[in-house]
């Protein structure tokens, strides 16, 4: 694991060769990767349940980093980051804010996927000066329909994946159709493009803490989304089984400055990966508006 250093380093040309660095957040090392132009407002990517640095689709990261400074990270206790994973979304949001400030940024944009979208909503509401624009993908508001069932669905599909020797993301992120299976295989192949300095897998204890946090989020009273005043772009597949797509429509309708990307046909929870060629230009257009 390579740590951040004061000596200048070449700007990486792709996520596959971006060095893994670390920054101390209240005495705990958080690992991250950073690429793209050095100027402008950085874009922080907030990851999904069980994900580490190597679970971001390189086509999405590289596409965004062609025009924006992009930072991926492992939150507390996840992957190679130190500490213990919190079991509430609010605590994860605080850790993310501390991470951003440890890097020295005064304002950032956020792209939150699934659980990362829960975290992004909390940060946007609580830190209006820190957050400029937000993209929410495959996610929903606190108390949204079906979110409290993520644990049961995840366990069921993980067991199914073990029995069929598949990756659980094939079932959780993509529809069980010919097109969906083809998209899943292409995505999983892309995740293997990085061969050196790969991240550690999430631990069982961290995974359980995340599941507990998601379950609590799903059982909360409906969130007051009027507190989020930043422009927000909302995206998803039309057939999301993990965070039902009706949550995407609800977010767009209730956010004061919400914009919705038309739901991607024949796609599910991993819609922005399946439709990366559509999503990336739209995301850049929104961020640069």
From TrEMBL:
The keyword Hydrolase applies. GO terms for molecular function: hydrolase activity. It comes from the Bacteria. Residues 1-20 are annotated as: Disordered. The keyword Ribonucleoprotein does not apply. Residues 42-272 form the AB hydrolase-1 domain. Keywords: Hydrolase. InterPro entries: AB_hydrolase, AB_hydrolase_1, AB_hydrolase_fold. This is Alpha/beta hydrolase. It comes from Streptomyces gardneri.
């Amino acid at each position: 694991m390579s740590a951040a250093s004061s000596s200048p380093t070449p700007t990486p040309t792709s996520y596959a060769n971006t060095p893994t660095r670390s920054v101390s957040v209240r005495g705990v090392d958080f690992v991250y990767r950073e690429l793209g132009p050095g100027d402008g407002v950085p874009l922080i990517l907030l990851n999904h349940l069980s994900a580490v640095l190597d679970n971001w689709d390189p086509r999405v990261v590289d596409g965004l980093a062609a025009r924006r400074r992009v930072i991926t990270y492992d939150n507390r206790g996840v992957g190679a980051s130190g500490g213990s994973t919190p079991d509430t979304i609010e605590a994860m949001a605080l850790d993310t804010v501390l991470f951003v400030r440890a890097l020295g940024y005064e304002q950032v944009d956020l792209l939150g996927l699934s659980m990362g979208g829960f975290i992004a909503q909390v940060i946007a509401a609580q830190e209006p000066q820190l957050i400029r624009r937000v993209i929410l993908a495959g996610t929903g508001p606190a108390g949204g329909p079906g979110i409290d069932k993520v644990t049961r669905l995840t366990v069921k599909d993980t067991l199914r994946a073990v029995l069929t020797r598949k990756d659980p993301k094939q079932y959780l992120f993509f529809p069980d159709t010919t097109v969906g299976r083809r998209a899943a295989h292409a995505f999983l192949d892309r995740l293997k493009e990085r061969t050196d300095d790969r991240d550690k897998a999430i631990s069982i204890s961290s995974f359980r803490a995340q599941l507990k946090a998601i379950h609590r989020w799903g059982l909360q009273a409906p969130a007051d989304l009027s507190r989020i005043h930043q422009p927000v772009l909302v995206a998803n597949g039309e057939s999301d089984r993990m965070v039902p797509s009706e949550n995407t429509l609800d977010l767009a309708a209730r956010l004061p400055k919400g914009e919705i990307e038309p739901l991607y046909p024949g796609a599910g929870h991993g819609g922005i990966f399946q439709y990366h060629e559509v999503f990336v230009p739209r995301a850049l257009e929104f961020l640069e508006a």
